[in-house]
Specification:
Jelly Rolls, about 120 residues, six-stranded antiparallel β-sheet, about 0% helix, 12 strands
Length: about 120
């Protein structure tokens, strides 16, 4: 039985946020990956279009999430379903770090507005 201890999780830093990978191919997962995101106060991630569906659950804090041009304020306990092909951006306008949990399929890619395609190490 694969058990990923918190001390074994791998941390990545991107766009001013910290992502702590708990499940993915490197940890033995065959289909899904999951990570905790820590979005510091004042952080605004660039808009990106996703290649796979993501389930974004806010554990703590408050964020502004823009999905295909519609902005919603989400608070702890809220979940956002980000469908394949959707364009999403995340902003933390508050004065404290927000913490999220994201689950998606292995192989996720993100296309930025300038056409750059990112392969997040969390999903690869």
């Amino acid at each position: 039985m694969p058990v990923i201890r918190s001390s074994d999780a791998v941390t990545h830093e991107m766009h001013g946020a910290r992502f702590v990978s708990h499940a993915g191919p490197r940890a033995g997962s065959r289909e899904l990956c999951a990570w905790r995101g820590e979005i510091p106060a004042g952080t605004a991630a660039p808009a990106h279009t996703v290649s796979h569906e993501e389930i974004f659950h806010l554990l703590d804090g408050e964020l502004l999430i823009t999905l295909d041009g519609r902005t919603e304020r989400v608070t702890a306990g809220d979940t956002v379903i980000i469908n394949r092909g959707a364009t999403v951006s995340v902003e933390n306008p508050t004065d404290r770090t927000a913490v999220s949990w994201v689950t998606t399929s292995i192989g996720l890619r993100a296309r930025l507005a300038d056409g750059t395609v990112l392969t997040p190490p969390l999903a690869d």
